């Protein structure tokens, strides 16, 4: 009950904050290696933003910094106005995070795993059954609801990961490759779900598939070698998939077309 009350208070405090995601000079060094350098951007309430970049560009590192899974060497991240380092619990209540390779308990079923996470996150016992039903249906998990996660396909495991991100009804979704491992029909389901969620949530998603950007997003942030090289509307990257690919290549390889 205390956790549930605190969650309500955190939501009230963030309600008037225009910027739901804020990265302010985020920098992460591993010894002499710089993973991200002076990354700054803001995402307003209700915006769906694609976070793009080639492999190793710093996308996943930035997402881990935003969610508090990593501490920055320098800079600051805020979620709903809460400083992720100084107000970790308040910020985390507002975040639904799907990592690129999220840890799952292979011996548990989706039903047991998600119930465990709901209780750990302080979802009210009165609300939890409805939330479990919602994520089961929205992520199309009915056929595997009582099967061990370790026996599920990669696509179904990805959907369990999406379900845990949605379970506590967060205001902010940070999704790292949400359609990885899914077949075309499942990809379409995820796109439809994200578009529906966009009516009430702020979404930052990483993807390598440029047509997903045009299908789901309003804005693009492109990172290369740990630095932001583009932050603009989707049309600024290109008016069709071919143009988007050419512009992506130009910005990440230094090629002038």
**Contiguous helical run count:** 10
Largest sheet: 6 strands, mixed
Strand content: 15-25%
Tell me the distance between the termini.
59 Å
Quick rundown:
With 257 residues, the chain is of the alpha/beta class. Helix 4 (110-120) packs across helix 5. The chain contains ten helices and ten strands.
3D architecture notes:
By secondary structure, this protein is of the alpha/beta class. It folds into two domains: 2-94 and 170-253, P-loop containing nucleotide triphosphate hydrolases (Rossmann fold); 101-169, no CATH class. It has ten helices and ten strands. The chain has helices at residues 2-14, 59-67, 88-93, 110-120, 128-138, 154-166, 184-197, 210-216, 234-237, 241-253, and strands at 19-30, 33-44, 48-52, 74-79, 82-83, 95-98, 172-176, 202-206, 219-224, 227-233. A six-stranded mixed β-sheet has the order 6-7-8-3-9-10, sandwiched between helices. Strand 9 and strand 10 form a beta hairpin. Helix 4 (110-120) crosses helix 5 (128-138). The N and C termini lie far apart (59 Å).
């Amino acid at each position: 009950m205390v956790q549930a009350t605190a969650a309500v208070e955190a939501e009230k405090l963030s309600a008037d904050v225009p910027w739901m995601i804020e990265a302010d000079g985020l920098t992460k060094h591993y010894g002499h290696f710089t993973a991200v350098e002076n990354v700054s951007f803001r995402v307003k309430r209700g915006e769906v933003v694609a976070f793009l970049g080639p492999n190793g560009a710093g996308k996943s590192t930035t997402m881990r910094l935003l969610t508090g899974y990593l501490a920055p060497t320098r800079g600051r991240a805020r979620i709903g106005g809460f400083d992720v380092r100084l107000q970790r619990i308040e910020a985390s209540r507002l975040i639904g995070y799907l990592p690129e390779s999220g840890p799952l308990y292979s011996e548990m079923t989706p039903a047991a795993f998600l119930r465990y996470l709901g209780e750990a996150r302080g979802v009210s016992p009165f609300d939890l059954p409805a939330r479990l039903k919602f994520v089961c249906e929205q992520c199309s998990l009915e056929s595997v609801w009582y099967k061990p996660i370790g026996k599920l396909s990669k696509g179904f495991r990805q959907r369990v990961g999406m379900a845990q991100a949605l379970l506590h009804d967060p205001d902010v979704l940070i999704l790292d490759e949400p359609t990885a491992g899914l077949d075309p029909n499942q990809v379409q389901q995820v796109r439809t779900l994200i578009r529906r969620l966009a009516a009430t949530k702020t979404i930052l998603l990483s993807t390598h598939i440029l047509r997903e950007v045009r299908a789901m997003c309003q804005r693009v942030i492109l990172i290369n070698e740990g630095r932001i090289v583009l932050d603009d509307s989707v049309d600024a990257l290109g008016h069709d998939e071919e143009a988007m690919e050419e512009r992506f290549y130009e910005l990440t390889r230094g090629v002038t077309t």
